[in-house]
Write a structure and sequence with these properties.
0% of the residues lie in helices and 53% in strands. It has strands at residues 4-8, 10-13, 18-24, 30-36, 43-49, 55-57, 65-70, 75-80, 89-96, 105-108, 112-117.
Length: 118
């Protein structure tokens, strides 16, 4: 069983930056981020393989978000730049056996709120 604890997030104006981080109690092949906005389904944001050598991004965040992983600390971070109001959501850390949108992801964090004001 791997436990995931998110940190970071908060309120930022459009065009600003935020970073969310996730600490894992164990190592998995892939770690990533999903998000869920009010009234919408959870959607894939980004994921990275354990070595940090390969990552996937949703089209909506490519060029603005960067995912990184520190295996020494068992953490994954998501640097979010040029934030838009439509990025507002609860961001969930996920860990599992893949780095694709489809997963599978076996472990999930509790989520952290990111709010982008216009």
């Amino acid at each position: 069983q791997v436990q995931l604890v998110e940190s970071g997030g908060g309120l930022v104006q459009a065009g600003g930056s935020l970073i969310v981080s996730c600490a894992a109690s164990g190592r998995t092949l892939g770690m990533g981020w999903f998000r869920q906005a009010p009234g919408k389904e959870r959607e894939f944001v980004a994921a990275i393989i354990w070595s940090g050598g390969r990552a996937n991004y949703a089209d909506s965040v490519k060029g603005r978000f960067t995912i990184s992983r520190d295996n020494a600390k068992n953490t994954v971070s998501l640097q979010m730049n040029r934030l838009k109001p439509e990025d507002t959501a609860v961001y969930y850390c996920a860990a599992g056996r893949a780095i694709t949108a489809a997963g599978p992801y076996d472990y999930w964090g509790q989520g952290t709120q990111v709010t982008v004001s216009s």
